[in-house]
Amino acid sequence: MYQKMLYLYRLNRKNLTSTRDEIVTFIKNEGKIRFDEMLPKYFTEDDFSPAKFKEYLGEAGISAILPHEQILRNLGACDWDKGRLAYNNTAVLFFARDLSHHYRHATITCALYKGTDKVTVLDRKDFNDDIMSDINNAMMFLKQNLKLRYEFDGSLARKEIPELPYEALREAIINAVVHRDYFQKGANIMVELYDDRLEISSPGSLPKGLAPSDFGHKSMRRNPNIADLLQRAQWIEKMGTGIKRMQEMMDEAGLPPIDFSFTGFVTLTFWRYPKPEARKKPKPANEPVGKMTLQILDLLRNNPALTRAELSQLLGSISEEGVKYHLTKLKRKGLIKRQGSDIKGVWIVDN
Q: Taking the model in full, what pTM does it have?
């Protein structure tokens, strides 16, 4: 198949002396080579971290009864190569003892600037430990540098409201990790906080076959193995609804919609305050409730003691974070309220 593709490529280029880089780029763009499936030559058992692997299994709720080689094969993190079991780049990105020794460009760089341009850097952190730790560390950086406001509703505990919804930011960072072009080794994922905005940039243009107008409406995974491992840990959903959820969260917070640009990087811009022309309009009191929200409402009517994890399992197509988002919407609409503690409490449903 590759020979036929190379022939067609050279025919289209009318150039029988295409360079090696041009040929590799062509095959990569056709989706026939995926970075997360490739077997690196110099990653051995000594480079593999059992501690990170054990931590992931706990996060994903996977039993360690089977041999770890079998579990890794089931996860798509290794394959057979010349009669031996070899780790692929998915295993490197998740379970390397020292990821920077193998892929320095897998770094997430977080920066805080003074003002609205890149002149004065107030703080910078580079995270290159493993995919899941890097996402958590990037979120910690944002939580340390974003502002909070407090609401008091009569209860003993005050309610903390971040200026940008954390769940939307986490979704954006995860998307950047899952969809970045890891073949581009000269650039990192950038999380850049300015006085007026947050920009999250992922190296690589949109995958072939996905137009800018499709962004947020259709899903095409550039690194399916990476996405699968994060989905098993319930960090993402496979439904391709992340962009829509992020926009809904921004709208709920009274903030302008996220801006997108595609210039060799996919960049998401979150505005830190409502623009005068984009201030949130009040919604009518009889605003319809979405299908997923109604399903959650029905489940809670039948069993008010259900937890987020149990709701996620019953619904099947939504993560615990997604359930939390819908529960928050229901609480804001006054359709449900929590009675008792998070562990032993129940939901009171307004009929």
A: 0.70
